[in-house]
């Protein structure tokens, strides 16, 4: 039988060589725990819950209620961010609550520093806003000023997000209309007739107060926009049945207040009248 000791010595020499090589690869002590790796915190979104079909998240995306991520409550980022679909940017008003919130979240339209100075409207949450999303959610809900009767609104664009919602111009207009009944006439009626039918008289000096886009938009739909024009029937809204050339659905205001009159009328417009 051959001696096994030479084979054992060779095995020991190989084991020693591997051990030396392994030690050379590590210049210092090696720890089995990595201290530079942490758990990734899950991304979570806040989102609106008012609509049945659409949702807006605090990143500025709008999506269908069925497509929102059930774990993060975030909308897919494949759509447009800060979308102003269905909004009138000159009035900062939209016909959809969710798109109003999305548009409002755009930093170019709502400054965070301005929002943080504002007081929260409701007494039960008295204080200032802490973030833009809370401001946009609260401001985009329609106000009582946009309601004509029960669930009927003066305009389709009754979700507004302007920081200066209670501007000095609007407050001045409201004060000048105290004691005045603002009436929307029927097509072809003059303001003199509109007020007379109600046992009142048209107040010519208050026509200039109504002769503004922001006032027309409160009482009329103005779904095709608001434009300067010239005509004795203004301020007024072009009826939907009017010829296409007359821009159906548009609101019109007089370029020169001194030409405003209670007696003007047009078969394709409905006048906005001050009666008392």
UniProtKB/TrEMBL annotation:
Keyword Signal (UniProt): yes
Localization per Swiss-Prot or TrEMBL: Golgi apparatus membrane
Signal sequence bounds: 1-32
Keywords (A to Z) from UniProt: Glycoprotein, Golgi apparatus, Membrane, Signal, Transmembrane, Transmembrane helix
A Pfam family per the record: SPRING1
Superkingdom in the source lineage: Eukaryota
One Gene Ontology cellular component annotation held by this UniProt entry: Golgi membrane
Membrane topology: Single-pass membrane protein
Record protein name field: SREBP regulating gene protein
């Amino acid at each position: 039988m051959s001696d096994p000791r030479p084979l054992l010595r060779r095995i020991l020499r190989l084991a020693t060589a591997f051990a030396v090589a392994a030690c050379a690869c590590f210049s210092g002590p090696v720890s089995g725990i990595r201290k530079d790796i942490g758990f990734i915190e899950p991304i979570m979104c806040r989102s609106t819950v008012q609509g049945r079909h659409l949702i807006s998240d605090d990143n500025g995306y709008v999506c269908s209620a069925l497509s929102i991520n059930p774990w993060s409550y975030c909308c897919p980022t494949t759509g447009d961010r800060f979308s102003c679909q269905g909004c009138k940017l000159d009035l900062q008003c939209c016909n959809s609550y969710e798109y109003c919130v999305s548009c409002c979240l755009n930093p170019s339209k709502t400054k965070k520093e301005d929002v943080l100075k504002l007081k929260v409207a409701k007494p039960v949450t008295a204080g200032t806003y802490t973030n833009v999303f809370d401001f946009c959610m609260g401001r985009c809900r329609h106000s009582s000023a946009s309601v004509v009767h029960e669930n009927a609104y003066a305009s389709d664009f009754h979700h507004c997000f302007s920081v200066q919602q209670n501007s000095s111009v609007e407050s001045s207009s409201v004060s000048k209309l105290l004691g005045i009944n603002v009436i929307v006439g029927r097509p072809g009626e003059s303001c003199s007739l509109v007020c007379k039918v109600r046992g009142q008289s048209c107040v010519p000096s208050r026509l200039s107060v109504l002769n503004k886009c922001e006032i027309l938009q409160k009482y009329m739909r103005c779904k095709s926009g608001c434009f300067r024009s010239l005509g004795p029937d203004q301020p007024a809204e072009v009826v939907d049945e009017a010829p296409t050339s007359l821009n159906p659905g548009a609101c019109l205001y007089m370029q020169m207040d001194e030409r405003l009159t209670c007696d003007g009328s047009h078969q394709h417009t409905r006048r906005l009248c001050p009666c008392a």
